[in-house]
Design a protein that fits this description.
NAD(P)-bd_dom_sf; single chain; 9 strands; 7-stranded parallel sheet; NAD(P)-binding Rossmann-fold containing protein; about 280 residues; binds nicotinamide-adenine-dinucleotide; oxidoreductase; Sc_DH/Rdtase_CS; alpha/beta; about 40% helix
């Protein structure tokens, strides 16, 4: 059941009531895709801490198992946490994943977060067509399927509100001299489709926002940078704060967008980048 910690006034505004001991997502049912990785896993942990029932979905069964064990260990008081293997580029998988929540009372929060950046992604000349297609299939079609089945579930369960958050990237807003054309194009598409869905479904009470993370302090990136100081500096210099972001800093933003505290925030490119996209020169 949604909305146990909030009330809606006659004009549709949602007033959040922070009752003692009640989490910010108390009673809400959430799906997180790409749940076995950095941002997805941190978000599942936070959602569970804040009282949500969470379905953790990912393409990798072993990674999902490890991630769910970590969550159970960190949040022993978690309400309901289940896992589901799902390839977001396959509509039948996504439909099955969302319909899994029918017995929970339907979905309230959909975090379409799964995404790839392929090692063979390059510039206009060198990007292989199959890498382009694979990237669009997961990063764009996967988000579309997630949005589609979230809307169908909201309607099926007569939800008067629902929150969908789609992970884009700062590369949808600024260009990069290290090309990853298929990825950049896919994240631009996520911003565009999110904005349009926000407007189309606004009168139904369904909100759609896009998260734009800057490069993060994840093992993937850090291992790749290794001890190469110039390579590291070339990236760090763009951050006014002088550091990469952390996955938990993205998860905190997702929690806000998922909760009723953000009830009047809709159709936004929600940028969590330490000011990176606002910088001309950065502090010395
Ligand atoms: P991650 O690689 O740690 O996690 C991504 C997860 O998605 C993995 O667990 C992977 O198994 C899963 N996945 C891959 N293909 C899938 C599919 N077809 N179906 C279901 N799950 C699939 O990555 P992350 O850094 O946490 O990234 C999460 C999102 O954030 C992605 O959309 C990514 O593009 C975006 N992003 C990341 C950064 C960064 O620096 N890490 C920056 C900007 C945007």
């Amino acid at each position: 059941m949604s909305g146990e910690n909030s009330r809606t006034s006659s004009n549709g505004a949602v007033q959040t009531i922070n009752s003692v001991g009640m989490g910010r997502l108390h009673g809400k049912n959430a799906i997180v895709t790409g749940a076995a990785g950095g941002i997805g896993l941190e978000t599942c942990i936070l959602f569970a801490k804040e009282g949500a029932n969470v379905l953790m979905a990912d393409i990798s069964a072993p990674a999902l198992e490890k991630a769910s064990a970590k969550l159970q260990q960190l949040v022993p008081s978690a309400h309901k946490v289940e896992t589901q293997v799902c390839d977001v580029s396959k509509e039948t998988d996504v439909q099955k994943m969302v319909e899994h929540l029918d017995s929970w009372g339907g979905i309230d929060i959909m975090f379409n977060n799964a995404g790839i950046m392929h090692a063979d992604d390059a510039d206009a000349v060198d990007t292989p067509e199959k890498i382009w297609d694979l990237t669009q299939a997961i990063n764009v079609k996967g988000v579309w399927f997630g949005c589609k089945h979230a809307v169908l579930s909201f309607r099926k369960h007569n939800k008067s509100r629902g929150s969908v958050i789609n992970t884009a990237s700062v590369v949808a807003l600024v260009g990069s001299a290290t090309p990853q054309l298929a990825y950049t194009a896919s994240k631009g598409a996520v911003l565009a489709l999110t904005r349009e869905l926000a407007i189309v479904h606004a009168r139904e009470g369904f909100r759609f926002n896009a998260l734009c993370p800057a490069p993060l302090n994840t093992p993937l990136l850090q291992d790749w940078l290794g001890d190469d100081k110039p390579k590291r500096l070339r990236r760090e210099i763009h951050f006014p704060s002088g550091r990469f972001g952390e996955a938990i800093e993205q998860a905190n933003a997702v929690l806000f967008l998922a909760s009723d505290e953000s009830s009047f925030i809709n159709g936004q490119d929600f940028v969590v980048d330490g000011g990176m996209t606002k910088a001309y020169v950065t502090p010395e």
